Amino acid sequence: MDEPLNIAAIVPYPVYPAKMGGQKGIALFYQYLAEKIPVTIITTGKHQASDFASNFLPMLGTSKLRYINPLLFFKLKKIFATNKYSHLVLEHPYYGWLGIMLKRACKIKLVIHSHNIESLRFKSTGKWWWKILWNYEKFAHRNADINFFITDEDRSFGIKEFKLSPAKCHTITYGIEMNVTPFLEEKQQARKKINELYNIRPDEKLLFFNGTLSYKPNLDAVDVIIKYINPQLQALKNFSYKIIICGKSLPASYKNMEPWINNNIIYAGFVDDITIYFKAADIFINPVSDGGGIKTKLVEALGYNVSSVSTISGATGLSLHITGEKLHLVPDGDWTKFTNEIITLSVNDNTPETFYDHFFWGNIAKKVVDILN
Question: CATH code at 62?
Answer without folding.
Answer: 3.40.50.2000
